Amino acid sequence: MTDNRLGDATSPYLLQHKDNPVAWRVWGSEALAEARETGKPILLSVGYAACHWCHVMAHESFEDDEVAEVMNRLFVNIKVDREERPDIDQIYMSALHALGEQGGWPLTMFLTSDAEPFWGGTYFPKTARWGRPGFVDVLEAISATYHSDRGRIDTNRKNLMHHLAQGPRSGEILHPGLAVLAGERLAGLLDSENGGIRGAPKFPQAPVMDLVWRAALRSGQADMLARCIHTLERMSNGGIYDHVGGGLARYSVDERWLVPHFEKMLYDNAQYIAHLSRAISLNHLDVALGGMFRRRLDDTVDWMIREMLNGEAFAASLDADSEGVEGKFYVWTPDEVAAVLGHDDGAAFINAYDITSNGNFEGASIPNRLADGRDPADEEKLAPLRARLLAARETRVRPGRDDKILADWNGHAIAALAQAAHLSKLQGVSRESWRGQAVAAYTFVMQTMHDGRGALAHAWRDGRLTRPGFASDHACMMRAALSLAETASEASESLAYLRDAEHLADALERDFLHEGGGYYLSSVAADDLILRPYSPLDEAVPNANAIAAEALARLWHLTGDDRYRVRCDAILSAFAGEIPVNAFGTAGLLSAIDTRENAVLAVLVSPDGTAAAEFDKALSGRGDPALLRLLGAPGQETAASHPLHGKAVKDGKPTLYLCREGTCSSPITDPADIDPALDALRPSGRV
User: Fold this and answer.
1) Disulfide-capable partner of 319 in 60, 85, 292, 399 (CB 3.0 to 4.6 Å)?
2) In angstroms, what is the C-alpha Rg of the chain?
3) Residue 421 domain flag
4) 623: buried, middle or exposed (CB in 10 Å: 19+, 13-18, 0-12)?
5) What percent of the chain is helix, strand and coil (3-state, nearest 5)?
6) What is the rounded distance in angstroms from the CA atom of residue 323 to the CA atom of residue 150?
7) Which domain holds residue 367?
8) Has residue 456 been placed in a domain?
9) Which of 47, 53, 61 is nearest to 321 (CA)?
10) How many whole angstroms separate alpha carbon 577 and alpha carbon 557?
11) CATH code (residue 137)
12) What's 278's DSSP letter?
């Protein structure tokens, strides 16, 4: 009987492998001790539940008795969920990159019994094909070399450990305007026809698009902003977007956004929601385009609440596969559409959504609107047709759901929902339930995923916590608290969330601080790693240091506490050498620099301590992420350094003050005076 020890794991990904004939171990002291005692090298396999090629390798190799026999005889086999342990994934993915490999998942690394890497790759087929060696051949060759040529193994190990131990490039203080210059350069990579970064595959690249958006605002380049909006439009019309059920897939394999890998990740959709709501709020956005963005926003939030909620907070992802076939849940044939909608309605949907007899994906069709561009005038007819198809699709075998709740990914979702609810309200569309859901998820993470010592756990599933948490958890939840504070409709509510943000900032400083500035990914309490990852580089979401720097800059302005400015500047100084040479990888930090340089705090004081929509709408119409909002009430007691100190209503009306680094405008009681006051305070281009 195979000694597979994954049966008690919390991770759905690990539980997918609990019946493999492989003697899998979970990462930890017990597995590492076994490697030392047996003298075997470690085979580390890292993946995640929604990973298509992880499933392929599992079916070909990990479920195969003959392959498992070789693995069990020659290695101590450790399986890791990269979403549950991003620190482990980051360490060994960095080692793979040092070997000259592009990277990806499944990540397959070979380690010494002390967990130090010496070689690796990604997906290996069971037998050699596509120019890739067969997995069994690789296993036998690695084991033979490990036992017969330790000098070669040791050379590789030393080189990789030297690479992993290297800190960020040293550099001088960052020059003003660097974020704008970097954003302009990255804008040059955008595909003028299809949007997004040129070529294939196409990822949403949310951190890069955020930076390009900001650079467009600062430089006054309307064409650059138009390229951001064009990217959002093409994504929203492509097959990467689920036109029947809402939500965005992970990426498209082609250059047109047509054919996705069908997995849906919480973080991608949180960022998509944020981008849609920001675009909708823009002054002078094309009406038809704004209507289409509104429908995508509503449908994506509906999907997230309908399919991703696990109790009060959000699950991690949906798989690409169902019944062992990628995309089967999402594609349609003309006959399947007609069977649900009938002849006439079916023909309308088929024509609108590119459903053909030949198909555009393995004999079936991925619904898309790429040929038509913006939604047609007959949206009133198409909406109920989509609803009927969605109801029919619910009878299909669903893709698997990774239902673990991650603090950092929920932080992204909470911030996006709070902003979307606020900006929707300003457009005359009530979405208070979205804010209610954001608050519910926030409360769950802050109360249920608290570790009892002022810090957060990383994951929750079935009442069990994975801890200690990471810098990303604390930074993302700090940003979530700030988003709830900035969009609050009452002053007392805003201040409560600001207090939470300060507690999270203190936990970051206590448990994650790097002596050179910035934060390690792993907590000081983590004791099972060869090193603590420390990096400025974004992945599909901004790096934890980028999110922390952005949040600390905002917290400084919102509280007036100079400690947070010092901490923000320490992060930016720590990576001052890395940022200018890798704008693409550090786009998140560059956006934080933009906030640090261009933040303006809009202090709104209302006679009754509640929001004034006309001011908020005028501010949001600029689409500027570096515009902050703080709501106050008359007579509110504050320290002299606090932004609300001394701010009073004028003539009994809601009154706005625009403040930049301690300098504030005269009191503003007419929203028409906001633009000239803001431009005087922060001269820059405006689109």
Assistant:
1) 399
2) 26
3) no
4) buried
5) 45, 15, 40
6) 45
7) 330-393
8) no
9) 53
10) 26
11) 3.40.30.10
12) H
How much is the pLDDT for 209?
98
Q: Structure tokens of 375?
A: 């939604």
Q: Is residue 578 part of a domain?
A: no
Q: Tell the burial category of 379 from Cβ atoms under 10 Å away from its Cβ (0-12, 13-18, 19+).
A: middle
Closest Cα to residue 375, out of 217, 547, 241? 241
Highest mean pLDDT among 21-35, 451-465, 625-639: 21-35
Last residue of a domain, one of 165, 196, 226: 165
What's the confidence (pLDDT) of residue 251? 96
Q: d(Cα 576, Cα 170) in Å, to the nearest integer?
A: 7
For the residues 328-348, what does the mean pLDDT come to?
A: 97
Q: Please state the three-class secondary structure of 55-120 as a single string.
A: HHHHHHHHCCHHHHHHHHHHCEEEEEECCCCHHHHHHHHHHHHHCCCCCCCCEEEEECCCCCEEEE
Q: In angstroms, what CA-CA distances link 258 with 84, 241, 245, 282, 568?
A: 30, 9, 16, 27, 40
Who contacts 433 (Cβ-Cβ below 8 Å, separation ≥6)?
none
Beta bridge partners of 332: 365
The total number of structural domains in the chain stands at 3
| Helix (H/G/I), strand (E/B), else coil: 284 | coil
Task: Give residues with Cβ within 8 angstroms of 122, minimum separation 6.
Answer: 53, 96, 101, 103, 104, 105, 106, 107, 108
Which is it for strands 251-252 and 663-664: parallel, antiparallel or unpaired? unpaired
- Does 243 fall in a domain? no
What is the distance between the alpha carbons of residues 424 and 93, in angstroms, rounded to a whole number? Answer: 40
Given a cut of 60, is residue 686 above it in pLDDT? no
- Write down the pLDDT at residue 232: 98
Map residue 402 onto helix, strand or coil.
strand
Please report where in the chains the tokens 């509510």 appear, as a residue: 493
Residue of 685, 575, 684, 599 lying closest to 174 (CA atoms): 575
Can you give the pLDDT at residue 399? Answer: 96
Instruction: Give the tens place of pLDDT for each residue, 544-584.
Output: 999 999 999 999 999 999 999 999 999 999 999 999 999 99
**Digit-coded pLDDT (tens) for 277-331:** 999 999 889 998 999 999 999 999 999 999 999 999 999 999 999 999 999 999 9
Q: What is the pLDDT of residues 193-245, one digit of tens each?
A: 999 999 999 999 999 999 999 999 999 999 999 999 999 999 999 999 999 99
Q: What is the DSSP letter of 5?
A: -
